[in-house]
Write a structure and sequence with these properties.
Puta_zinc/iron-chelating_dom, binds iron/sulfur cluster, single chain, alpha+beta, UCP006173, two-stranded antiparallel sheet, UPF0260 protein FDT80_07920, 13% strand
Amino acid sequence: MTGDPIARNGLSPRFWEKKPLAKMSQKEWEALCDGCGKCCLNKLEDEDSGEVALTRVACRLLDDATCRCAHYDTRHHFVPDCIVLRPDNLDTHAYWMPETCAYRLLWQGKPLPEWHPLLTGTAQSVHDAGISVQGWTLSEFDIPEDEWEEHIIEEPT
Ligand code: SF4
Ligand code: SF4
């Protein structure tokens, strides 16, 4: 697989259908990410109903051309509360994660979508399917938090 920022070479075919999430190697776990960038959009949570609304206002470190974190390895220096997703904390986080997120889908016992890079062999397929955040986010540097409500969107699915 060329041009994919996530290492997906050398993995067993359709390993995600054969292994539970908790048994995956670190490489397999990382390879599940489709690179959509939707988890890096800011959300608004209603304290009473628990409902989560997605906004187009992205984390300061998101590069919306690539849909990748600009400083993934050192991100906690800049964004201390960025979640490190693991098999043992999916229960806690699945409710706010994007509907198409591979971690959420597998946690729900659902298959990966046909545009997932593990199935198509190219990272571009998530952008071509219109699922990623490529080119349409606003930076939280430019939008104060009290205006995020004006930028609520429907999740592209
Ligand atoms: S929403 Fe899920 S699949 Fe998409 S970038 Fe985030 S972790 Fe990866
Ligand atoms: S720090 Fe990086 S990985 Fe975390 S939400 Fe921001 S852009 Fe996404």
